[in-house]
């Protein structure tokens, strides 16, 4: 075997050292150095939890090395006792220390779960400033698509694709949904991730405290274009935000239902897009999965089902209450206010059909309802 000269070894190590740093190229320290107060608190929670766990890990690792060295065969330690099997003081230390740490972790987890609840409106801008009770959060409606992000500012009447902006020190209230498959909305510099699911709405409250250009992305695998499902979040002062809004409004494009349907088609690496106008209630239609013409909204279907179902409803039958306070459900006539226990008869029903037990809210002889009693619930007075 050829022995290497020390100088040769040092030269070889100097050549190899830069390659050892290559794995660190995929690391991003933004989670530990965020720009928003919510993300700051989450960073502190990570540090506190790690420190509490290290209180056990470090002593155990150090004692493992110390015991292995002290009681090695050649050491011949004077206190070595091969028949030793129990120590009360050691048992107390082994069980009490982890128990205290678990209690501390439990207390930290319980308090942070409530304080950092994404559905909880913010009560502070940062650690030194409370939120002004008269200040109104910036409303942003988010739709995750394949594979892009749509942001709607309902109060400003604008929308963007793959670009988000907000003033610093102003709370932001996100309403989030998805058009097709589950995703996860995540801006590490702003707050933790929260899922975007089709037909469901999640909520996130956050605030940016430092101006900057930050990255947002989907943190949940959603198909072929997942790795490119990214957007930019611009935190800026109020004047800069006003200029950004003016730039969006200068686009002249409108995000209507037809444009939304086109955006829904899968696409990758979509550049930022601006819309100076947004069709009213577009996010409501996206949430209820009824943007496409003729498609019935989920909330309308659920209301119809809760009313017993009619079977002939059109897409606009159950938009809500009539002006006179009644509910229009498909082919049924609305129930007049003040009348209880009566079902409005469908238009065109024959007198014979009206006299049937089912039409009168009564059951045929021998039939029972779900409680084991005869008679239909709909025919009861005073319900």
From TrEMBL:
Residue span, Cytochrome oxidase subunit II transmembrane region profile domain: 23-120
Top-rank taxon, per record: Bacteria
Comp. bias intervals (Basic and acidic residues): 370-383
Protein keywords: Cell membrane, Electron transport, Lipoprotein, Membrane, Oxidoreductase, Palmitate, Respiratory chain, Signal, Transmembrane, Transmembrane helix, Transport
Low complexity composition-biased segments: 357-368
MF annotations from Gene Ontology: copper ion binding; cytochrome bo3 ubiquinol oxidase activity; cytochrome-c oxidase activity; oxidoreductase activity, acting on diphenols and related substances as donors, oxygen as acceptor
Protein name stated in the entry: Ubiquinol oxidase polypeptide II
Organism: Sphingobium psychrophilum
Gene (name only): cyoA
